[in-house]
Amino acid sequence: MTVRSPHSHPSAAPASPALASLETPLNLLALSRGATEQFVHGLGWPRYRAHQILRWLYRRRVREIGQMTDLPHADRARLMSMAHIRRCTDCQILRSADGTRKILARLEDGLVVESVIIPEGRRLTLCLSTQVGCTLDCGFCLTGTMGLQRNLQAHEIVDQVLTAQDSLERRERLTSLVLMGMGEPLANLEAVSDAITRLTNSTWGLGIPARRITLSTAGLATRLQDVAALGINLAISLNATTNEQRDRLMPAVNRLHPLDRLLAACRAYPLPPHRRLTFEYVLLAGVNDTEQEARRLARLLRGLRCKINLIPFNEFAGNPFRRPDDATVSAFQAILKQAGYDVFIRKSKGRDVLGACGQLGRLPVHQEPIGLTPVAGRC
Ligand code: SAH
Q1: Residue of 184, 188, 257, 357 best suited for mutating to test ligand 1, as the one with most atoms within 8 Å of CB
Q2: Is 379 a catalytic residue?
Q3: How far apart are CA 94 and CA 265, in angstroms?
Q4: Per residue in 106-161, pLDDT tens?
Q5: Both 326 and 199 in a single domain?
Q6: 232 plus 151 within the same structural domain
Q7: Which residue's CA is the closest to the ligand 1 atom numbered 15?
Q8: Who is most buried in 114, 251, 256, 352, counting CB within 10 A?
Q9: Does 114 participate in catalysis according to the annotation?
Q10: Same-domain check for residues 119 and 172
């Protein structure tokens, strides 16, 4: 049975204009740091009040203004009369046999955003989405088949982290974040930057170190510098070793940012000391997985401070590509290793809940209404 909380119904129409203003108060989470400061200034409150509010939202993860106990009573009451904290209360968590958890969270307009918690030894990584769907039409990616539904707003990106944190068991802590879920983060850079500020700020934000955050791009070459400015790590989904092949596999991005320009931008990237770029390479059986391609990849990346993540293709219904066998993947890895690279094979986790790379979107979400289970106050 699907039960919904009244606040989360996407099409709940307000009965009258007066009610509308009551039913759609300002969402404090939708304000950037600057906007929160302006808001507080507009109320004639001291500047530090903004930091108090931000700290309650992100460090303490409260869902009610009433819980902001270091605000004077009168200020709290005034804030409650005009604003609220609109966290996601309508979500479902799918647990994979391998421990991976996929979180489906319904947004205010009814669209569903997906994030994935991936345990790996002592690490616990959260894979975040930055768009619902994607404009790029990479031929091996399920999200691409949805088209772009819309960009996520900064607070919708951050709320995926808050929701994941709330769902963790007592002894669990997220160790890293990867912006590798649905969408192309560099196509939604403004919201992504704002979200990164809230995630990394250590006085009022979530205090997640920037070095623990990685943004993965399909290769928007002209925007790589903006990632450097954020201080987070950069991963590039290369996936091909020639322009012709990349045109076939990733037509939308490669037409605008061809391979040579992308690699030139990587070489010009101001990599901080002790950091390196990550190159991701989806291995498609019989398409880009030959030993010749491994050697070409080694040549292309020569001189770049980087590591390589090989991702054996995760198959999905209706897609013609196939996953190479383990021997082919190992042979590809061995050639790159011999050439001196650190090469990792991305284990495919969460495939039974469609939580693996390239499996976010559509299934099972869009086949039938999901029985989202709202849990009052918590997801
Ligand atoms: N748009 C960004 C982030 C989303 S895709 C990007 O392209 O990097 C995250 C990673 O999953 C990318 O490296 C992409 O190449 C890979 N990927 C997409 N579909 C896949 C699939 N079906 N199997 C394996 N990896 C896939």
Answers
A1: 357
A2: no
A3: 39
A4: 999 999 999 999 999 999 999 999 999 999 989 999 999 999 999 999 999 999 99
A5: yes
A6: yes
A7: 237
A8: 114
A9: yes
A10: yes
- 181 and 167 Cβ atoms separated by less than 8 Å: no
**343: containing domain:** 91-377
Pull the structure tokens for residue 215: 């943004």
Residue owning tokens 């039960």: 3
CA distances from 153 to 23, 104, 159 (A): 20, 17, 10
The amino acid occupying position 119 is P
pLDDT band per the 50, 70, 90 thresholds, residue 373: very low
First to last CA, the chain: 17
Residue nearest to atom 14 of ligand 1 (CA): 237
pLDDT in the model for residue 253: 97
Total structural domains in the chain? 2
Burial of 18 (0-12, 13-18, 19+ CB in 10 A): exposed
C-alpha 142/C-alpha 53 separation (Å) is: 39
pLDDT in tens, 286-339: 999 999 999 999 999 999 999 999 999 999 889 999 999 999 999 999 999 999
- Whether residues 333 and 373 share a domain: the answer is yes
Boundary residue ending a domain (84, 102, 132): 84
Q: Is 227 in the pocket of ligand 1 (CB under 6 A)?
A: no
